[in-house]
Design goal:
The chain is of the alpha/beta class. It contains ten helices and eight strands. The mean pLDDT is 95. Bound molecules: 2-phosphoglycolic acid.
Length: 254
């Protein structure tokens, strides 16, 4: 079975000025100096460079929180993959539920964004997840299947292992309600099965859990066989708490 390097990402959302981002990285780096795994910070666009410049020579990678699918064009307010690559950004979060819900992000645009990111050399962190209504109605699997099939439709199966998937049940984001480790494991194993059907090297794909991950619940989630890391929102704003979550991956072997 291929090895899957653990992956912990800090999704800051619309938090932190340049000065705050710089202070966070300066506080975080000494705490995680020993990590061999992927630690990814996703700052707002304005703070990307401040984080990039401080993390050179460390294990930290930098991801944007969104991008447009075209390289350039008349799209006021948007940012393209080449613009991110120029800043030495390595990854990009795509399809976060807040973008889907608040800004009308659709599976149709994601079907173009994921391959555009790969083509530009950016690692896509593709977010999928069901609403509370869908879970209660027993539609979790059909919602996830539809999202994955649509969003990855134009990705060559040979490249699927370069995509990081974040399973984020919408009812667990920012609510303090975490999926139980068993729920998260069961759903992420299901996602791996879907990827396998796509003809992909599914055992090589990193699949993260996201939704109210904190230092106190991360260990049980990360102990699950198919959970390869976490996309952390609120708890990633504090360097101490985020470093604690990163350290939990020290003994993880997949
Ligand atoms: P949360 O956010 O950890 O604050 O629930 C996770 C996310 O939205 O990525």
């Amino acid at each position: 079975m291929p090895e899957r390097t653990p992956y912990i990402a800090a999704n800051w959302k619309m938090h932190k000025t340049v000065a705050e981002a710089a202070a966070f990285v300066d506080a975080l780096l000494p705490k995680i100096a020993a990590t061999q795994h992927d630690v990814v910070i996703c700052p707002p666009f304005t703070a990307l460079t401040a984080v990039v410049e401080r993390r050179y020579g460390t294990a930290v990678k930098v991801a944007a929180q969104n991008m447009h699918e075209d390289d350039a064009g008349a799209f006021t307010g948007e940012i393209s993959a080449p613009m991110l690559v120029e800043l030495d950004v390595e990854a990009v979060v795509l399809g976060h539920s807040e973008r889907r819900q608040c800004f009308g992000e659709t599976d149709e645009t994601l079907a173009r964004k994921v391959p555009a990111a790969l083509a530009a050399g950016l690692e896509p962190i593709l977010c999928v997840g069901e609403s509370e209504e869908a879970r209660d109605a027993g539609q979790t699997e059909s919602v996830l299947t539809a999202q994955l099939q649509a969003d990855l439709a134009a990705v060559d199966s040979a490249r699927i292992a370069e995509v990081v998937i974040a399973y984020e049940p919408i009812w667990a984001i920012g609510t303090g309600r975490t999926a139980t480790p068993e729920q998260a494991q069961e759903t992420i194993a299901f996602i791996r099965d879907i990827l396998r059907e796509h003809g992909a090297a599914a055992d090589a794909v990193r699949i993260l859990y996201g939704g109210s991950v904190k230092p106190g619940n991360a260990a049980d989630l990360l102990a699950q066989a198919d959970i390869d890391g976490a996309l952390v929102g609120g708890a990633s704003l504090d360097p101490r708490g985020f470093a604690e979550i990163v350290k939990l991956t020290a003994d993880l072997i997949r």
